[in-house]
Amino acid sequence: DANVVLGHLPPRLLGGEMALDVEAARAAVQKVADAMGLPSAEAAAEGILAIVNENMAGALRLVSVQRGHDPREFALVAYGGAGPLHANAVAKIMGSFPVLVPPAPGLLCAIGDLVADFRDEFARTYIRVVEDADPSEVGAILDELGERAVTWLDGEGISEETRSISFSADMRYRGQGYEIPVAIDPEEVRSGGLAELEERFNGLHEQLYGFRMHDTRSEIVNLRAIGFGAVPKPDLLTGEPGQADAAAALVEEHEIVFEGERVPTRIYDRARLEPGARFDGPAIVTEFDATTVVLPGFVAEVDRNFNILINPKGNQ
Fold first, then answer.
1. CB neighbour list of residue 69: distance below 8 Å, 6 or more residues apart
2. Quick check: 308 and 292 in contact, CB under 8 A?
């Protein structure tokens, strides 16, 4: 409703097949404005979006800052029907550029399901402090789990050329209530014991949580074999960059609210955007399954894979 009130979301979606009730959206947001003593529905809508964007940024901090990663060193990929609506604003908070909006972002999860490899896991509980674990016993369990994975791969009709098996151990510091999967190699275990496994766990724990517990013993909880079967990958559409002028994709221009002001904003049809096309924000890009917002002060460009890349002006 807030996106509709501000004009960030067009009144018709799905290529014009679904009409949104703009007046109902305005009435809903006006109730918030009245309750908060705000001067307009637009003011309430911008406040709603500010809270939503901060909440999204907070979720991103859980998987970046709190795991020792600087979000400014990463691009932000927008997917889903609504992700591109908010991605530029969230990236502005996080400092994560470019924003990458893939073709058909609303279908990205479905496409992922179609191209995802076969996978199944086979596990055995094996609770031992590492120093008390018997490498030969661990190796024997991994061999058995590997044989089960092979049986499954055979049953699925996955050829030798497209299959693989990996092994891992779920590990924790003794007394912890959660585990980290750590890669393990049966041959390495048989030839060199489990010292490398323990050090690998310590390193992963430090990477994920920022510390390691030097005086606490590490513990194996489960051993796993994971069978993979590759499926054919699609040939994604590519094109050579052409002219930078995006005028051919321009549909209309009207005023949309950004930072409390109505700003003339160009609306583009993504299906007409070719590699090399470039345009400044504010802008709205519409497509069948999603809507992308490019904020004032940012510039968008289409790469050779038809991704839209959004960067701060002067920072491309």
1. 63
2. yes
Q: How far is CA 51 from the centre of its chain?
A: 20
Query: Which amino acid is it at 98?
Result: P
Average pLDDT, the chain: 92
Question: pLDDT at position 114, please?
Answer: 86
* One-letter amino acid of 137: E
- Find, among 144, 139, 217, 214, the residue nearest to 175 by Cα: 217
Beta bridge partners of 169: 182, 223
CB 233 within 8 A of CB 139: no
Contacts of residue 218, Cβ cutoff 8 Å, sequence gap at least 6:
129, 130, 171, 172, 173, 174, 198, 201, 202
For 77-104, how does the pLDDT look when each residue is reduced to its tens digit (9 = 90+)? 999 989 999 999 999 999 999 999 999 9
State CA 112 to chain mean position distance. 12
Which residue bears the tokens 């691009």?
75
Strands 308-312 and 18-19: unpaired
In the chain, alpha helices (H) = 2-6, 22-36, 41-62, 83-94, 108-115, 135-155, 186-192, 195-209
The number of CA neighbours under 13 Å toward the Cβ of 75 is 14
Measured CA to CA in angstroms, residue 303 lies from 108, 185, 244, 245 at distances of: 18, 40, 11, 14
> What gap in Å lies between CA 26 and CA 103, rounded to an integer?
31
Longest pairwise C-alpha distance within the chain: 73
Distance of CA 44 to the CA centre of its chain: 29
